[in-house]
Amino acid sequence: MAAELLTKRMIEQNVNIDRMEHAVALFGNFDENIRLIEKQLAVEIMCRGSEIRVSGEAEPVYAAVKTIEGLLKLLEKGEAITDQSITYLISLVNEGSEDKLETLAKDVICITAKGKPLKAKTLGQKRYVDSMKANTITLGIGPAGTGKTYLAVAMAVRAFRANEVNRIILTRPAVEAGEKLGFLPGDLQNKVDPYLRPLYDALFEMLGMENYHKYLERGNIEVAPLAYMRGRTLDDSYIILDEAQNTTHEQMKMFLTRLGFGSKAVITGDVTQIDLPDPKKSGLVEAGKVLRHVEDIGIIRFSEKDVVRHKLVQEIVKAYEKYYEEGRRH
């Protein structure tokens, strides 16, 4: 009863801001960042000079103060504040894990072609990156939008730039996602390119168009359908198998046994989006069971909290989920 009274008691707490530029960044355009905190935690936030006042029920106010303090620490480290970082920090505060967010701001994975530093944005992504550093093979399993492919390509580019590997090999099974593409013109490479486009997009962002084509001509980069891997042994390579949920048991075993000396492999996929005629025959699902106790293989499972998407995309996904859920109930 006492705890319930404490929770419902209305209180006010203050947070001091030392630098005015941090206050501007914290509030965002038209105070959108503060409005998001108010909406998610049901508190009222006011700014008076260098002081922020948070009022409301006790528990939400404590959470809002911790969220604001965490955001200020990120700003001190030169990090930008986004809707995703605010929402994620609030979830960490609710779990009592807000201190862990600081670890995400430390490690730069690589620099993109436009000079943007790439870092893990969630604790799940941090575990994924650490696993790719520590293990020869890493399986990244989880929902779309968690950065599985993007971070894997970033780690491959990082290893290539550090001369740890001589080649980057990107592959995925050529499985149509529901629709039939029909006849595709051109040679064999032109026919499989549509299936591999997400891998190209990530490489273009990391390396730039000119460098990508230069390395492609030299043979340092290879983007190919999974069928091209059969019969090969890949030494000194960083190999990424994307959309692995659409591999069969035989294809997955074939891929895993292509690994040569000095190579690393990353396997990514979402087990909820299997496009095989028989989902029970997914090579990724089986690999997660077969390899879970094998040394030097890391298996990282992402949750919905690790999804990093545009705010509007998140709202669209939620709207569809709500629509389907209401349809199932009726």
Structure description:
With 330 residues, the protein is an alpha/beta fold. It contains twelve helices and eleven strands. It has helices at residues 2-8, 20-27, 32-41, 58-76, 83-95, 123-134, 148-161, 188-207, 209-218, 249-256, 283-290, 311-329; strands spanning 10-16, 44-48, 51-57, 108-111, 117-119, 137-141, 167-172, 221-225, 237-241, 264-269, 297-301. The strands form three sheets. Strands 8-7-9-10-6-11 form a six-stranded parallel sheet. Strands 1-3-2 form a three-stranded antiparallel sheet. The longest helix has 20 residues, at 188-207. The chain is globular and about 70 Å long. The two termini are 39 Å apart. Mean pLDDT is 84; it is low at 176-184.
Which features does this protein show?
alpha/beta, 12 helices, 330 residues, 11 strands
Write the layout of secondary structure elements.
Elements: H1 2-8, E1 10-16, H2 20-27, H3 32-41, E2 44-48, E3 51-57, H4 58-76, H5 83-95, E4 108-111, E5 117-119, H6 123-134, E6 137-141, H7 148-161, E7 167-172, H8 188-207, H9 209-218, E8 221-225, E9 237-241, H10 249-256, E10 264-269, H11 283-290, E11 297-301, H12 311-329
Helix pairs in contact: 2-4, 3-5, 4-5, 6-7, 7-8, 8-9, 10-11
Distance between the termini: 39 Å
Poorly predicted residue ranges: 176-184
Shape: globular
Helices, by number, come to 12
Largest sheet: 6 strands, parallel
Please give the order of strands in the largest beta sheet: 8-7-9-10-6-11
* Proportion of helical residues: 40-55%
Rounded radius of gyration (Å): 23 Å
SSE succession: HEHHEEHHEEHEHEHHEEHEHEH
